[in-house]
């Protein structure tokens, strides 16, 4: 830290209670009161340096020569600063630092301590030192912090604006180029290790990261920080860096910003030192400063901002602003950050499903019009139009995200069916390449809501497309007794249809391959290898027989359906015809775990398989 020494005399004052007394031996002829402190001084050293004191002493001097009393309660910096000024007037040694130069400069201006009242007076000395301070980053930060103590005077002298401009210029420049001493953090230890030579001595000084200035500016009060960040932005700082600094500032003063949003977070936040009202005002102002551009701020921090705004009961415009920002980049979010606990006064559900619904609606308002043009359902067969895959990618990612969210909230017994349906149907069918995720969510919901009527179960299962289930999901669904009978039959039918199509395609490829290799009909194998020819023929015959069996099974299913509609027989015969059995029939308690079928969605959502079994 820079400093400047002035004066040469030894200490000439002593404090007695609330009074400073000069120890020169001469009786005091002027008393100056600053706040609660009285200074017993002499007229000549003061009026020879201060125009204001010269004027006041002249106006208050008594004809009898008795001591006069002056009150200077408005002196910038108060009694502490006036003590330094008194020592300066008496020639006592003092030290000017970045921590006291602003108040000394303002007090010198207030007391009119210009060159007209002595060469090398305090106005000129402090002004020169300020210029030195402004050339140094950490000293400028310290001086700017002290401006709050003398804010009106510092503003009139343009000290605040000069300091902010100096800091903004330095933040937007590379400090390594100018050899500025900064208090920022160095880059990672990995980069430092690259510069270490064999003898342990660094080959070159470590470079600074782009965020080296975040911590220093976070020490400022909100009004000063706000002015500084706006100046930094106006001088061309990248929007990403501006947004990161704003988030860093918030995390210092809002403990809630350092916690995850779900109930699973076990980290305890530090006790806030500011009131809820102050935290709310801070949050609302900082949110307005964050650049409103997709991807500038990560979805993780936007969602934490939103959750914090809900807890602090920020104004509706602040919450709506954050919801729209999250919606614009919902495809970049992760599931754990979407699990925002319900903060409403009338808590119905564990998580705030309504908030996620609004966020999703905003995302769809941006992406669905473009995605519809690229939907595979409405374009000519072949492939997506140019760029169509890129348009569909955010929609597909959000579809997987929302399916995972539905699986998480489905276990909440208070989540009613309309809310679950509204969130699920907001995703268009073409955005889900597979419906395993929505099937898993439906299964969890059915398990947590066993009181649903048959009609409600039917409505719920209409959210998924049985034709878009993977083999694993279809196998699981065919044995899932929580599903309605109609759904199980659809799953079995589409699986049988898929198998027939696959076998037919195999025959088509096999026949074409054989004909291309041997137009005469020969399989192209050496005639001496009769065993191979016989094995191939037998294999082909076995596949044909299996196809005939599947066709018989399909016919049998149709007959059973007709009988069921007349006799209302138990539907359990259908899984058995495909070789499926109930877990209670095929597994004892020790083997039950091996009979469960894991769905891809259970892995995707990070949940154990027993939720969908």
Question: What are the salient characteristics of this protein?
Answer:
613 residues, rod-shaped, two-stranded antiparallel ribbon, 7 strands, 5-stranded mixed β-sheet, mainly alpha
List the helices and strands and how they pair.
Layout: E1 4-6, E2 13-16, E3 19-22, E4 30-34, E5 37-41, H1 43-47, H2 51-60, E6 68-71, H3 78-90, E7 94-96, H4 101-110, H5 122-134, H6 137-146, H7 151-156, H8 159-171, H9 175-178, H10 189-194, H11 214-217, H12 222-234, H13 239-253, H14 276-289, H15 299-311, H16 316-328, H17 335-338, H18 353-373, H19 388-409, H20 417-425, H21 436-448, H22 454-461, H23 471-478, H24 485-517, H25 530-567, H26 573-577, H27 583-586, H28 592-595, H29 600-604
Parallel strand pairs: 3-5, 4-6
Antiparallel strand pairs: 1-7, 2-3, 4-5
Helix pairs in contact: 3-4, 4-5, 6-8, 8-12, 13-14, 15-16, 16-18, 18-19, 19-21, 23-24, 24-25
Commentary on this structure:
With 613 residues, the chain is mainly α. 55% of the residues lie in helices and 5% in strands. It contains 29 helices and 7 strands. The protein has helices at residues 43-47, 51-60, 78-90, 101-110, 122-134, 137-146, 151-156, 159-171, 175-178, 189-194, 214-217, 222-234, 239-253, 276-289, 299-311, 316-328, 335-338, 353-373, 388-409, 417-425, 436-448, 454-461, 471-478, 485-517, 530-567, 573-577, 583-586, 592-595, 600-604; strands at residues 4-6, 13-16, 19-22, 30-34, 37-41, 68-71, 94-96. The strands form 2 sheets. Strands 2-3-5-4-6 form a 5-stranded mixed β-sheet. Strands 1-7 form a two-stranded antiparallel sheet. A hairpin with a 2-residue loop joins strand 2 (13-16) and strand 3 (19-22). Helix 8 (159-171) crosses helix 12 (222-234), helix 23 packs antiparallel against helix 24 (485-517) and helix 24 runs antiparallel to helix 25. The longest helix is centred in the C-terminal third of the chain and has 38 residues, at 530-567. Mean pLDDT is 78; it is low at 186-207, 266-271, 374-387, 520-528 and 567-613.
């Amino acid at each position: 830290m820079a400093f400047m020494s002035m004066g040469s005399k030894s200490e000439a004052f002593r404090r007695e209670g609330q009074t400073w007394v000069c120890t020169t031996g001469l009786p005091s002829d002027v008393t100056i009161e600053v706040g609660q402190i009285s200074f017993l001084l002499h007229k000549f050293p003061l009026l020879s340096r201060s125009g204001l004191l010269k004027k006041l002493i002249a106006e208050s001097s008594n004809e009898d020569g008795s001591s006069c009393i002056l009150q200077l309660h408005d002196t910038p910096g108060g009694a502490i600063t006036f003590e330094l000024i008194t020592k300066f007037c008496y020639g006592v040694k003092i030290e000017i630092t970045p921590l006291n130069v602003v108040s000394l400069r303002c007090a010198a201006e207030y007391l009119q301590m210009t060159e007209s009242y002595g060469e090398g007076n305090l106005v000129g000395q402090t002004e020169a030192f300020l210029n030195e301070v402004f050339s140094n980053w950490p000293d400028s930060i310290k001086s700017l912090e002290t401006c709050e103590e003398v804010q009106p005077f510092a503003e009139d002298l343009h000290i605040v604006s000069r300091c902010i401009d100096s800091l903004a210029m330095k933040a937007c420049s590379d400090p390594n180029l100018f050899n500025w001493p900064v208090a920022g953090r160095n880059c990672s230890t990995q980069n430092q290790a690259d510069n270490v030579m064999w003898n342990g001595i660094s080959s070159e000084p470590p470079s600074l990261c782009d965020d080296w200035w975040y911590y220093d500016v976070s020490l400022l009060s909100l009004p000063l920080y706000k002015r500084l960040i706006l100046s930094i932005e106006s001088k061309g700082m990248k929007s990403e860096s501006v947004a990161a600094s704003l988030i860093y500032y918030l995390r210092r003063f809002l403990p809630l910003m350092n916690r995850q949003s779900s109930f699973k977070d076990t980290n305890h936040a530090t006790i806030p030192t500011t009131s809820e009202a102050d935290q709310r005002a801070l949050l609302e102002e900082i949110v307005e400063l964050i650049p409103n551009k997709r991807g500038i701020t990560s979805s993780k921090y936007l969602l934490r901002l939103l959750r914090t705004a809900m807890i602090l009961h920020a104004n509706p415009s602040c919450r709506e602003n954050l919801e729209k920002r999250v919606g614009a980049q919902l495809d970049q979010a992760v599931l754990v950050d979407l699990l925002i606990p319900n903060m409403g006064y009338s808590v119905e559900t564990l998580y705030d499903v309504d908030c996620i619904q609004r966020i999703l609606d905003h995302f769809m308002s941006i992406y669905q019009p473009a995605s519809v043009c690229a939907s595979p359902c409405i374009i000519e067969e072949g492939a997506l139009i140019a760029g169509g895959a890129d348009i569909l990618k955010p929609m597909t990612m959000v579809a997987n995200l929302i399916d995972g969210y539905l699986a998480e909230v489905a276990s909440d017994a208070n989540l009613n069916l309309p809310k679950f349906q509204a969130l699920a149907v907001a995703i268009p069918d073409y955005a889900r390449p597979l419906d395993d995720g929505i099937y898993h969510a439906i299964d969890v919901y059915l398990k947590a809501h066993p009181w649903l009527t048959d009609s409600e179960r039917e409505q719920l299962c209409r959210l998924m497309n049985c034709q878009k289930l993977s083999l694993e999901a279809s196998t699981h669904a065919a044995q899932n007794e929580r599903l309605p009978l109609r759904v199980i039959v659809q799953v079995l039918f589409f699986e049988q249809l898929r198998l027939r199509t696959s076998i037919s395609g195999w025959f088509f490829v096999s026949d074409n391959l054989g004909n291309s290799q041997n137009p005469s009909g020969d399989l192209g194998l050496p005639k001496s290898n009769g065993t191979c020819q016989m094995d191939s023929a037998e294999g082909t015959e076995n596949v044909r027989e299996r196809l005939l069996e599947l066709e018989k099974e399909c016919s049998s299913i149709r007959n059973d359906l007709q009988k069921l509609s007349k006799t209302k027989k138990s539907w359990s015969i259908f899984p058995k015809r495909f070789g499926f059995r109930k877990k209670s029939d095929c597994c004892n308690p020790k083997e039950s775990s091996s009979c469960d079928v894991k769905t891809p969605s259970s892995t995707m959502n990070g949940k154990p398989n027993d939720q969908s079994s």
